[in-house]
Write a structure and sequence with these properties.
356 residues; 10 helices; eight-stranded antiparallel β-barrel
């Protein structure tokens, strides 16, 4: 079950998702052309310079879409990603491993772009060495995409990932069998490595990004999450009303008539006095599940007083929810809910952060 809304800074959100997907497709084509060896692919009808130009332009397009992907991720501001996180891997607070893979891929692409533009200054050997090392950017980019992407569970995204993997396998196989059996050991190693990629994804995806609770496992954010078994929360400031806690509960979707749908989210917050959070969304039903939100109600409180704070949703991006609630004394809290929702059972799990 997925909630969908058209409120808040959703333009950046959709641009980030779209440009990231397109960048992965273009990067796959660029690296595949390089692996298959553009020179060997030329034919009498297609001159070498045409294939070289296609390879170069696809690579530049991939870099352009990647830059837009990075800029919109920073401008969106929903996830705590800094400019340094885009170039220095594994040091951020938001899914550091998977975001770090993206930073590694970006750094390798920068190195390739600079050495390609200044090839005459660096020399052929340096350029070639950097170019070969840069082939590693593709698996890093793929892991980044499936590890941090909000669309990983979508059927169309799985088709794109599968297509990218197949293209790379075809490129490696075509390169390995060309000139066989010269350097047979290296060719067999390349074929073996290409076979490990789809097998590894088939084993990992069901228990990783496709499983419930992946957001928490991936580190969203890593410094604030605690496992369900410990049922503890991490303070984020000295204020008694500031906290980040593990959340678990359920999501129910219903109909309000007239084509309107409702989504009711009930969460328990581990280790908090304000342990009950309820979010009610109303809006136009969307084919395939979910809704386009038109109004909302949010309550936060204790078991004895669940309506201590009341308010509304201020931003809704997939299953990431922002809200603002106020108590009778005028104290206001900003809430950020980052959830994973099992579409089969309606079970929800993730984190809820509150700050004045």
């Amino acid at each position: 079950m997925t909630t969908i809304a058209a409120v808040g800074p959703s333009a950046y959100w959709y641009l980030t998702r779209g440009t990231g997907t397109i960048a992965l497709i273009l990067l796959t084509l660029s690296v595949a052309l390089g692996v298959a060896n553009v020179q060997r692919l030329r034919t009498e009808n297609v001159p070498r310079f045409v294939l070289d130009a296609v390879h170069r332009n696809v690579s530049l397009l991939a870099m352009a879409f990647l830059l837009v992907h990075i800029v919109t991720s920073l401008l969106d501001g929903f996830a705590p990603i800094s400019l340094l996180d885009t170039v220095i891997p594994f040091g951020g607070t938001y899914r550091p491993l998977w975001l770090g893979f993206g930073a590694v891929a970006f750094d390798l692409l920068i190195a390739v772009t600079i050495t390609s533009l200044l090839r005459r200054r660096f020399g052929y050997r340096t350029w070639r060495a950097v170019h070969w090392a840069a082939y590693a950017c593709w698996p890093f980019a793929l892991l980044h995409g499936v590890g941090t992407g909000s669309d990983t569970k979508a059927g169309w995204m799985l088709v794109i990932v599968a297509g990218c993997v197949i293209v790379m396998i075809v490129a490696v196989v075509s390169r390995a069998i060309a000139g066989w059996p010269h350097h047979a050991g290296a060719r067999l190693a390349a074929l073996g490595a290409s076979a490990l990629v789809p097998l590894g994804l088939l084993v990992w995806l069901p228990s990783g990004p496709l499983a419930a609770g992946w957001a928490a496992k991936a580190g969203t954010p890593a410094s604030l999450l605690r496992s369900t078994s410990t049922a503890t929360a991490t303070p984020v400031s000295t204020s008694p009303t500031s906290f980040t806690a593990h959340a678990s509960g359920s999501v129910q979707q219903g109909s309000a008539g007239g084509g309107l749908a409702t989504v009711d989210i009930s969460l328990s917050l581990a280790g908090q006095h304000l342990s009950r959070l309820a979010v009610n969304l109303r809006g136009q039903a969307i084919d395939g599940g979910g809704l386009e939100m038109s109004s909302s109600d949010v309550t936060l409180g204790s078991a004895s007083n669940p309506g201590q704070y009341t308010g509304r949703v201020t931003s809704l991006q997939g299953t990431n929810i922002g809200a603002r609630v106020t108590d009778s004394a005028g104290h206001t809290l900003n809430l950020v809910c980052q959830l994973d929702i099992d579409p089969n059972t309606g079970a929800a799990a993730g984190t809820v952060s509150a700050a004045p």
